[in-house]
# Entry
Amino acid sequence: MGDYGVKHYVDEEGLEILIRIGPLEDLGGVGDVRIDVKKPDGTLVTWSATLVTDYDSDYAYIRHITAGGSVSDLDVAGEYELQAYGVLGSWRGLGETVKLIIWDDFS
# Structure
């Protein structure tokens, strides 16, 4: 029949992206969070994000909800590379790269 796994598609709006950034006790106070994104066509963009500390009792996450329409975050099919960014005291840095596959319609 087919693969019934979860797929996400070009121009999907309202997709919640959660990236686990580390132990809540260490990173629960991180600020200036964002997600740096490399789109499949090589374009580099930044997505706004918020710190989430109440999703899981052990880990901190950053969250972004995708926009659609003429300002779509997911406007190109292919592999997106996402990196969490944050500031904690005098430390500024990136997290590990996370990959997200976005499909064309009827894929």
Observations:
- The chain has one domain: 8-103.
- The beta strands are 8-9, 16-23, 31-38, 44-48, 50-52, 59-65, 78-88, 91-103.
